[in-house]
Amino acid sequence: MTVGLPDSGAYMEHRYAGPSDISVLGLNTGTLDLTKNGWGHQVGLNGEKVQVFNEEGSKQVQWSESKGAKKALTWYNTYFDAPEGNEPVAIRMTGMGKGMIWVNGKSIGRHWMSFLSPLGQPTQSEYHIPRSFIKPTQNFLVVLEEEPAEPNSIEIVTVNRDTICSFITEYHPPNVKSWARQNSVFRPVLDVVRTSAELKCPNHKKVVAVEFASFGDPTGSCGSYALGKCNSPVSKEVVEQHCLGKTSCVVPIDRKLFFKNNDGCPDIKKTLAIQVKCTL
Predict the structure, then answer these.
(1) pLDDT tens digit string along 30-78?
(2) pLDDT at 194 over 80
(3) Mean pLDDT computed over 228-232
(4) 106-157 pLDDT, tens digit each
């Protein structure tokens, strides 16, 4: 019998956990009570002890082909080749529930797809695999799944960092680097200290396009921004002036910059949403 027990929290020594009454029902002779049969317990799984998450340990157990959804508490393994290029690598755990992941015997941590956001979506679906863990070919992937799951939808993906975003409001504090300590007193190092959107392309790339810009009340998140009811008509123009052709840029949160003549929604707290494309 395998059970999960609490391993943290206050007053652990006073908390009872585990089976209490155990009986076998449906026997011709009636109910068989096994409660006092001298039960013992051990911490951990046999798979952990023989280290089935590395290739050498995996040879000590017999594996069967995965077909369809499996019951809870199941070990899975497969091989994959490293994706081309130098982009960051991640594993997308579609179809899985909760458990642990190993690549070439190294743990990359816990996955928890069954923990959902208020929108009914997993709070995290992709998990980083360091490039240093990966060989060019035949990378050994092992997953310990604690819930009924379908592993055939798992994907190895690369993360595109050529699209970068910023989402900042007027009420965000200015960058902490706007001040410096001088003789035990913090003083501003800029002539004008104000909140700004700061963007920086990776790997010395430059901003080649402003894909979205709105100063007003935009909604959404990076990759899915949308205009709200309030928007400066020169938002994209302002961001292009500050960012195009640069590896990094700073766009001030300044109503006078975005609403030169008339602020059509003066009572709305302004937000600046930016999405830009970077390339060499």
Answers:
(1) 888 888 887 777 777 889 999 999 999 999 999 998 877 678 889 999 9
(2) yes
(3) 94
(4) 999 999 999 998 878 899 999 999 999 999 999 999 999 999 999 999 999 9
- The answer to whether residues 145 and 98 touch, using CB atoms and an 8 Å cutoff, is yes
Q: Domains (ranges, CATH) in the chain?
A: 48-158 (2.60.120.260), 163-279 (2.60.120.740)
Q: Which residue has the tokens 């060499």?
A: 280
Taking the C-alpha atoms of residue 98 and residue 74, their distance in angstroms, rounded to an integer, is 11
| Interatomic CA distance for residues 112 and 141, integer angstroms | 17
Higher pLDDT, 17 or 177: 177
> What is the chain's length?
280
- pLDDT exceeds 70 at position 100: yes
163 by Cβ neighbours in 10 Å (0-12 / 13-18 / 19+) ranks as middle
DSSP the chain: --------STTGGG---S----EEEEETTEEEE-TTS-----SS-HHHHTTTTSHHHHTTS------S-B-SSEEEEEEEPPPSSSS-EEEE-TT--EEEEEETTEEEEEEETTSB-TTSSBS--EEEE-GGG--SS-EEEEEEESS-B-GGG-EEEE---SEEEEEEETTSPPPGGGEEEETTEEEESSSS---EEEEE-STT-EEEEEEEEEEES-BS-TT--B--S-B-TTHHHHHHHHHTT-SEEEEE--HHHH-SS--S-TTSPPEEEEEEEEE-
Half-sphere exposure of 6 (CA within 13 A, CB side): 10
